[in-house]
Write a structure and sequence with these properties.
Bound molecules: S-adenosyl-L-homocysteine
Strand content: 25-35%
CATH class of the largest domain: Alpha Beta
Distance between the termini: 50 Å
Structural class: alpha/beta
Radius of gyration: 22 Å
CATH topology of the largest domain: Rossmann fold
């Protein structure tokens, strides 16, 4: 048996009763043998599986499941550390909890439901988050206004389900970050770049760094610690520029090496000089759906071509795609095309991906989304 966590509607022969979206349902074979229990959904995915064991989905279930997720984060060395309290505790299908994302920042867990079923279970999940994490989580902030299916019209409101703390400074590998979980993108921070930021720190010494699409400035703060000569952070959002300035001030107050600019990426790359020898390109997902793929690949090529054109000889380019529909091969081709267009000699130093606290369910390869290349450009 395969353990893919979705049951597609086309695979359902018949339905007993009339389940409502978000209700628990049991999936059986034609001759009545148990397969799975999960949340019922309207649409092409009919059931999101919660368990392949015939178990009740109750307070006990949530505590067991979340404890497993927490123990895994301790085992891989991202949780229960004095210098790091920023990590993803639940990564949907990757933790066998489809439709649920939980990121932890200090003592606060920020929880996002992507399915009606998870929304219905939010109180049980919040309670279990506090119990299952041995005191690591005290507050639970629910942030699903924009992640729940729009059509379900649930009127979900963002807010604390447990505790409530104004303390929003979290630690990532010993660096401090203000996390704006209320107004920020996603859960407030891109936890998925932690390992890639560490690698960037390693290459930053003495370099002129451009962090394009900087958002909260994660890469910028690591580059500063790595001994960069200067760090320029760019984002089209003025709010992001405020965030990066705050985060630099938290870690390197008054350090003149850093400057941030609110500017469109393409415009900045067109007009900037040729002095940067470490450039990070971490754009938002260019393709959110399969139909947008061709257009997105062109976008990646165009963006990377600009960086290849301007980066100083001997420079290093960190380039990413977080579009789930863009495969590793697609992305490589788009970047290679850009390299060829520039005529520069380019070598791959590293191939990057999402970190261990964003695990991929082996039966659900769709869970792989972040990919990156580190390139040496002569
Ligand atoms: N690198 C960041 C995450 C980037 S998210 C980190 O490690 O946290 C993508 C960012 O790109 C957002 O902050 C968004 O405001 C910015 N953005 C989107 N379109 C842009 C454009 N055309 N020019 C510059 N920035 C843009």
């Amino acid at each position: 048996m395969r353990f893919h966590p979705w049951v597609f509607s086309g695979a359902v022969h018949h339905i007993d009763g009339q389940p409502e979206e978000g209700e628990f349902v049991r999936v059986l074979t034609a001759d009545g043998c148990f397969i799975a229990v999960g949340h019922w959904q309207i649409g092409s995915i009919a059931v999101r599986v919660l368990s392949f064991e015939d178990t009740a989905v109750d307070a006990d279930y949530w505590e067991r499941r979340l404890r497993r997720a927490y123990e895994m984060r301790v085992a891989i060395g991202v949780a229960a550390r004095s210098d790091n309290d920023t990590y993803r505790l639940v990564h949907g299908e990757g933790d066998n909890l489809p439709g649920l994302v939980v990121d932890v920042y200090g003592k606060t867990a920020v929880m996002q439901a992507h399915s009606v079923g998870m929304h219905h279970c939010r109180e049980d999940i919040a309670e279990a988050l506090v119990r299952a994490t041995d005191g690591a989580v005290e507050n639970v902030y629910y942030k699903s206004e924009t992640t729940l299916p729009y059509k379900a019209d649930l009127g979900a409101e963002n807010g604390f389900l447990r505790g409530g703390s104004p303390d929003n400074v979290a630690l990532e590998n010993g660096l401090k970050f203000h996390i704006d979980w209320m107004k920020g993108q996603k859960t407030g921070f891109f936890v998925d770049q932690r390992d890639n930021r560490s690698l960037l720190e390693h290459y930053s010494g003495g370099r002129n760094v451009l962090n394009m699409f900087c958002y909260t400035g994660g890469f910028s703060v690591y580059a500063m610690r790595g001994g960069a000569r200067l760090v320029h952070s760019v984002d089209s959002s003025a709010k992001a520029v405020d965030l990066v300035n705050q985060n630099i001030a938290l870690n390197f107050p008054g350090d003149p090496r850093h400057q941030a600019f609110a500017e469109d990426a393409f415009k900045y790359l067109d007009t900037m000089g040729r002095d940067y020898d470490l450039i990070i390109l971490d754009p938002p997902a260019f393709a959110k759906h399969k139909d947008a793929l061709r257009h997105a690949l062109k976008g990646y090529t165009k963006l990377n071509a600009k960086a290849f054109e301007k980066i100083k000889p001997g420079g290093i380019l960190f380039t990413f795609s977080c579009s789930q529909v863009v495969t590793k091969d697609n992305f490589r081709t788009a970047v290679f095309t850009a390299a060829a267009m520039s005529g520069r000699s380019v070598r791959i130093l590293h191939q990057l991906h999402q970190p261990a606290d964003h695990p991929i369910n082996i039966y659900h390869p769709e869970g792989e989304y972040l990919k990156g290349l580190v390139l040496y450009v002569e």
